[in-house]
Structure formats: structure tokens, C-alpha cells
DNA sequence: CTGTATCCCAGTGGATACTG
DNA sequence: CAGTATCCACTGGGATACAG
């Protein structure tokens, strides 16, 4: 997206282009808690395949919101963390978390 | 999603399930500005097809975040607006808008 | 105007096997 | 461990035609 300049820089569309999909948002949720290894994220983001995880991490790296650090060890270790730009997205994930918490409380726990 | 109870109510995942895709977020952006007719949204959400718009509006209606009101006129008029639940998502879109604004300012307007 | 109904293609993403 | 490489199924989404 963002290919056509007919989008005169809508802020919401810009953000959506960077993290407006399920997997990126869930990966963000984990990385906001701190640096993580590949397999950790794979385990924590429920249902994601190795392929899709790799693809999304690469995109996020290219967009400058994720930093990838390779440690030349055996077995290999690769750590992913948020860049400063990535961390600046924290308020968005937080607001989603806040809303979700309320929603669950009010709508999914009708056991009053 | 949310089919497997292996998701022990993660707030972010819950929110992502409801509005974690491009089109819904952009539709939200418009409806947060006020009630709109079908064709208005179609015009304002750049690139969306009639079919996809209808599908997403139906899903959002079923999820209780959008209200659909039909006026028995000729030609027909249908107005879409946010429910109270839908409007409660405002902070999320706002934080995305805020972040996008900063991002554009800092990264896409390097004309200093 | 506001849809529904088809057809169909491209891309997303799952499963599996293999590698450094 | 952290990928890459395939193969493939499914579906999101475009185009088009038609309807109330």
C-alpha cells in the first residue's frame, strides 16, 4: 500500500500499513515485554507458523521497528527487540490491551 | 478465531480479533467522525470494494460495534454509526492517528 | 442507493522437509 | 536453534452483473 499518492498522508492509514494486521500486533505484544529469541516468540504467539513469523519479523525489521541481533554461537542464537521507533508504538498496543481487558470483563465473563 | 479456548483471554488478541485488520480500522476511522451512509464510507475508505465494505460492516454489526439503520425511502438510505461499544474503541484509533502523525512528520517529510 | 450473487485470481499462510 | 525452500489449500478481495 501507500503506493498511490492519492493517500495524502492519512495518519491512521500510515499506521495501519505498518502494523495493521493480526500477526504483527501479536508479535508487538511480546516484544514490548522485552527482547526475545525466535523460538520464544514462536511459542508465545499462538498459532503462528515459523514461516509467517519469519516473514513478519523481516518486514518489521525493514520498517525499522524491530532490531535483529545474531549471536555467532552453536547452537545459533538470534534475539529480537524493538527499536526506538518500535517502542514508540507502545501506546497503541496498550490501548488495545486496556480495551480488551474491559471487553472481556463486561462481555465474556457474564457470570455475575 | 477465538475458537480454541487455548487463548486464555489475552486482551490484545481479543481486540485484534474484533478490529485487527486494515479495512475495519479504516472504517472505524470514518465512523468515529459521525454517522455515515454506505456510499460515503465507500468513497472515503480509499480502495475498498463494495463487496468487502459490506462484509466488514456486517461483521462489525454482528460484533456489536456498528449500528445499521435502514430508512424505507426511495432511493434507499442506510446509515451506519458506532454503537456505544464501537465508540469505546476511540482511544485505540486515536493513538494510531497520533503515532501516524508523528511518524509522517519525522520520517516522510525529511525536507528540513 | 444499497445491496446480493458469481466468478476468479493472487496472495496469505499452513505443513513438511531440509540446512548451517 | 533459526531459519530457507516447497508445495498446496484456502480465502481475501477485485470485477462484473443483477435486484429491491
TrEMBL record, chains A, B:
Listed InterPro entries: ArsR-like_HTH (IPR011991), HTH_HxlR (IPR002577), WH-like_DNA-bd_sf (IPR036388), WH_DNA-bd_sf (IPR036390)
UniProt cross-references to CDD domains, sorted A to Z: HTH_ARSR
Domain (HTH hxlR-type) ranges: 10-108
Pfam families for this protein: HxlR
GO MF: DNA binding
Keyword set, alphabetical order: DNA-binding, Transcription, Transcription regulation
PANTHER family xrefs: HTH-TYPE TRANSCRIPTIONAL REGULATOR YODB, TRANSCRIPTIONAL REGULATOR, MARR FAMILY
Name the UniProt record assigns to this protein: Transcriptional regulator, HxlR family
Organism expressing this protein natively: Trichococcus ilyis
Taxonomic classification: Bacteria, Bacillati, Bacillota, Bacilli, Lactobacillales
Amino acid at each position: 500500500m501507500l503506493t498511490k499518492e492519492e493517500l495524502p498522508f492519512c495518519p491512521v492509514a500510515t499506521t495501519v500499513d505498518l502494523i495493521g494486521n493480526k500477526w504483527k500486533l501479536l508479535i508487538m505484544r511480546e516484544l514490548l515485554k522485552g527482547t526475545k529469541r525466535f523460538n520464544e516468540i514462536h511459542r508465545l504467539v499462538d498459532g503462528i507458523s515459523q514461516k509467517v513469523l519469519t516473514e513478519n519479523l523481516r518486514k518489521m525489521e525493514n520498517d525499522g521497528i524491530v532490531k535483529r541481533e545474531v549471536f555467532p554461537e552453536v547452537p545459533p542464537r538470534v534475539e529480537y527487540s524493538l527499536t526506538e521507533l518500535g517502542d514508540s508504538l507502545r501506546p497503541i498496543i496498550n490501548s488495545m490491551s486496556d480495551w480488551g481487558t474491559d471487553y472481556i470483563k463486561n462481555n465474556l465473563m457474564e457470570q455475575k
